[in-house]
Amino acid sequence: MTNFTKVEKSRATSFVNQLLPCEPAETTVEDADIPDFIKEMNDEAGATTVVKNCELKRYLSDDVIYSESVENYWRRRKLDFPCLFEVAAKVFSIVPSESACETTFSLAGHLLDKRRNRLQHETVEKIVVGCQLATKYPEWVEDLQE
C-alpha cells in the first residue's frame, strides 16, 4: 500500500475493518504472552477489536513479494491472517460481469437504427437508463401507473 495516499489507505482500512468477522479467530495464546492492559479489556467487543486491529496492522507491515499472485499469497498466509483471509475470500470471489454493459449497448443498438437516426444522444441515454431502472425496480413502474 505504499503507492496510496493517506486518504486512500484510511478508506481501505475502514472498508476492511467493516468486513472483518466479528468473532476473533480461535488461537491459543498463553496468559503470560498477553500484556496486562489487554487483559483488562477482555470484554467481547474489546477483545474482537484488538484481534482485528492487530491482524490488520501485522498485514500492513508485512513485506509483499510482487511477483507472487494474489491467490498464492493468500493460500500461503491463510494461517497467519485467518480473519483477513476470510475478507480476501469474500472480496476476490466477486465475479465481475459484463452483462449490464452488453445489455446497455444492445438496447442502444436497437434504439439507434436507420429509422431512428434523428434521436438525440440525451434522449437515448434517458431511455436506456429508464429501461435499466424499470428492469431492476419494477415496483417503481407499478407505482407510476397507479
Automatic annotation (TrEMBL):
Stretches assigned to the HAT C-terminal dimerisation domain: 55-128
SUPFAM superfamilies listed in its UniProt record: Ribonuclease H-like
MF terms (GO), sorted A to Z: protein dimerization activity
Superkingdom of source: Eukaryota
A Pfam family per the record: Dimer_Tnp_hAT
Protein name: HAT C-terminal dimerisation domain-containing protein
Originating organism: Caenorhabditis brenneri
